[in-house]
Design brief:
The protein is of the alpha+beta class and about 230 residues long. The protein contains 8 helices and 7 strands; from the N terminus they run αββββαβααααββαα. α3 crosses α7. The longest helix is centred in the C-terminal third of the chain and has 24 residues. The N and C termini lie far apart (about 40 Å).
Length: about 230
């Protein structure tokens, strides 16, 4: 099988993470899926970004079986595999430990929708899962992280096509998109919104959430049927 295209896309997306200030050392990974072949390319485990190449990306199927590659896939691979298998419309996934988003994760707080930058991308607070319970922790941890994400979306009645980011309680963020470019974009937006929300609360601890009319306007002008927004 020819996996050159998704390996190249996965490599390019992974290399954007340090450029965007979203990772330190090897604290993150990107995967890119080929839906027709039901596989994805993902960063190899523990390899510094400066040592990556397209050929080093590892190919894994949606059941978390390694299909091709010399190196061991990222330790988060089981999480990616379960999300691809469950949510059929996502084409790429990003996991980072970016500073501000991770801080909200550690605080076990959703990121409140305070402003129009946030509303340009989603219409609700960015969710944070509860801490993982001990049974899940001692089981297949990375697979259970995927279950934790999926179960939280079901519980909160969220659509992964609209809310394309989440915080794992006590852990760090995940983001996704239809393409590698969109997934990396969402990871960067999540970090920026997390920083803005933190600064907002330092300036005004009693800051109010954005009013519904502005949420609707900003989201629909970018994503609605008559969208027109662009800067």
């Amino acid at each position: 099988m020819n996996y050159r295209q998704i390996r190249q896309k996965a490599y390019e997306a992974n290399m954007q993470l340090p450029d965007l200030g979203l990772v330190l050392f090897t604290f993150g990974n990107v995967s890119v899926a080929d839906r027709e072949q039901k596989v994805f390319a993902i960063k190899p485990s523990g390899i510094p970004y400066k040592e990556l190449s397209p050929e080093k990306m590892v190919i894994v199927d949606f059941d978390n079986n390694k299909i091709d590659g010399v190196l061991r896939p990222s330790s988060d691979t089981a999480t990616h595999a379960l999300l691809y298998k469950t949510w059929e419309n996502i084409g790429a996934i990003v996991h980072t430990h970016s500073t501000y988003a991770t801080a909200w994760s550690q605080a076990l707080r959703d990121i409140p929708l305070y402003g129009t930058t946030h509303a340009d991308h989603c219409t609700d607070d960015i969710p944070c899962t509860p801490p993982m319970d001990d049974k899940m922790i001692t089981g297949n941890y990375e697979y259970e992280t995927g279950r934790q994400i999926i179960n939280h979306f079901k519980e909160k009645k969220l659509d992964p096509a609209e809310m394309q980011m989440i915080l794992i309680g006590n852990h760090a963020p995940f983001a996704w998109g239809e393409t590698a470019e969109r997934a990396v974009y969402h990871a960067a937006v999540l970090e920026q919104v997390a920083q803005m929300a933190w600064i907002t609360e330092q300036i005004n601890p009693q800051a109010n959430r954005l009013k519904p009319s502005l949420i609707k306007k900003h989201y629909e002008r970018k994503h609605g049927n008559d969208s027109y927004y662009g800067q």
